[in-house]
């Protein structure tokens, strides 16, 4: 695993709100990730996330139009909670250290992992933000996105609006059908050139949860598979947004409570 970050990479991320790391995984590691994720998805039998009743392709209360979004990607969350192989991958403190170095946080907790599979001919993923969906509010929160297949212009690679995270807010504009919907809230970025994040399988990107990002349609007859994980800096508190938190856990929380459950949000890295 290419887990040692240079000062230049950290600086680039902190200026632009994203970074692409080529050849993040070795060929052997990539195959391990693919096998683990494939197994974990099969075990789920369509259940989108633990502790909720949502099924893949049905309305989950997050995306606005379930019919349209069922053709954007298949999305399964917190596979680490239901598969030991994925758990071993996701709790790797080397990745946690990378997230801490990029974000500037002392400690990193898993918010949720997420398999994002664009099937052949899938719809585009509209420009959006991540953090406003989450149950905590932290401008340092970020995600890793690992390409399990080559991510190309043809099959729906990611795109970023550089430096947008410096001006976006926690207001949730959702993810609609229209690619330009985000610019109603942030017109200052409508004329900023986007950056495509083409990646070979095994490469990865990190992006800030307040960086405007999206993905193209899959204009190919093949899959575009990715495994991602969102990270919460340690010390965050509940903001009242349910998001992916299990119903039973939600009943124990009130706004302002520390989100430090090792069962739900394990601490995977802490600076010494």
Automatic annotation (TrEMBL):
Q: Which domain of life is it from?
A: Bacteria
Q: Name one Pfam family in it.
A: PhyH
Looking up SUPFAM superfamilies in the UniProt record yields: Clavaminate synthase-like
Query: Is the keyword Transit peptide assigned to this protein?
Result: no
Q: What is this protein called?
A: Phytanoyl-CoA dioxygenase family protein
Any one Gene Ontology molecular-function term assigned to this protein's record = dioxygenase activity
Q: What InterPro entries does its record include?
A: Phytyl_CoA_dOase-like
Keywords assigned by UniProt, alphabetized: Dioxygenase, Oxidoreductase
């Amino acid at each position: 695993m290419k887990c040692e970050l240079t000062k230049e990479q950290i600086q680039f991320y902190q200026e632009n709100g994203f970074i692409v790391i080529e050849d993040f995984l070795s060929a052997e590691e990539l195959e391990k990730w693919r096998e683990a994720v494939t197994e974990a998805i099969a075990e789920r039998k369509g259940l989108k996330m633990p502790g909720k009743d949502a099924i893949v392709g049905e309305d989950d209360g997050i995306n606005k139009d379930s019919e349209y979004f069922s053709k954007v990607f298949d999305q399964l969350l917190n596979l680490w909670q239901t598969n030991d192989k994925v758990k071993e991958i996701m709790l790797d403190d080397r990745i946690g250290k990378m997230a801490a170095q990029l974000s500037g946080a002392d400690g990193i907790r898993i918010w949720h992992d997420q398999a994002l599979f664009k099937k052949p001919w899938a719809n585009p993923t509209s420009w959006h933000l991540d953090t406003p969906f989450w149950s905590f509010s932290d401008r340092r929160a970020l995600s890793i996105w690992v390409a399990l297949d080559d991510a190309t212009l043809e099959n729906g690679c990611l795109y970023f609006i550089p430096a947008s995270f410096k001006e976006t807010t926690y207001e949730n504009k959702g993810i609609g059908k229209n690619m330009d919907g985000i610019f109603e809230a942030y017109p200052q970025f409508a004329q900023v050139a986007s950056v495509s994040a083409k990646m070979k399988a095994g490469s990865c990107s990190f992006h800030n949860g307040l960086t405007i990002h999206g993905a193209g349609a899959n204009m190919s007859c093949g899959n575009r598979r990715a495994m991602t994980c969102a990270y919460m800096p340690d010390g965050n508190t509940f903001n009242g947004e349910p998001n992916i938190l299990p119903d039973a856990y939600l009943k124990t929380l009130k706004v302002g409570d520390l989100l430090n459950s090792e069962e739900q949000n394990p601490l995977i890295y802490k600076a010494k």
